[in-house]
Request: fold
Amino acid sequence: MKKLAAALLTVSVFGTILTGCGNAEAAASEANTAGEASAEAGSEAGQAKEESGAKTTYETAKENGYITFATEGTYAPYSFHDDSDKLTGFDIEVAQAIADKLGLEAKFTETQWDGIIAGLDAGKYDAIANQVSITDERKEKYLFSDPYTYVYGVVIVNGDNTDINSFEELKGKDVALTVTSNWAELAESYGGKIVSTNGFSESIQLVIQGRADATVNDNVTFLDYKANQPDANAKVVATSDEATESAILIRKDDSDLQEAVNTALKELRDDGTLKSISEKYFGEDITVAH
Reply:
């Protein structure tokens, strides 16, 4: 059952669940065509930069002495403002550590999620550090660094609930979720009935109050919630086998920046910096796959 949950989790995060061989083949053909076009466009853009003598993003960052990252600033514990209004969080510290390894200063542009990738397209910043999940669709148009976060899907229920012990047992149950989220798609794939909310805080409150049977989210979000609300009457009853991977998002023609970031991430992993940052915020290392 866990294997099935993991498979559906991966599909739900990476794209729309397809039914029927014909639909799958058509979608695959469209994806391949789009991927080839995107790769060709990226290659042409990089070649155009070289031919025109224009500096790459990474070259410009080295000249300026800083690299710019986009982040939400309202997504604790990844990116948020502390009591002194200082921007901080797991993603912020990882981005700062990457910049340090590159001999650069990290500067941050705070923006809402809905427009964060469009801002990258427009050249408003060099990269995005905001728990961007690696998906096939995004890989067609952008470059990703190596993953630095691995999170697992979990089913969360009221602490007194004994009816739900797996993803499969969401069938026919009221599942509190944001309707446009990947988690809602996953819950619906198991037959769950979505109770619309504005986010995890509202979703888990409905579960605790008995107004919804369950919610689905990532294990890290729940760990953070329990760290701040240790007496909350909620528990995890099922966990996926496979993880969703998140990474730094980079424009398609910035392969030199991707290479530099990957080199920095490897050094940060090898010297224990990534593990240390993770344990500071989550109490465990989420920078490696289980």
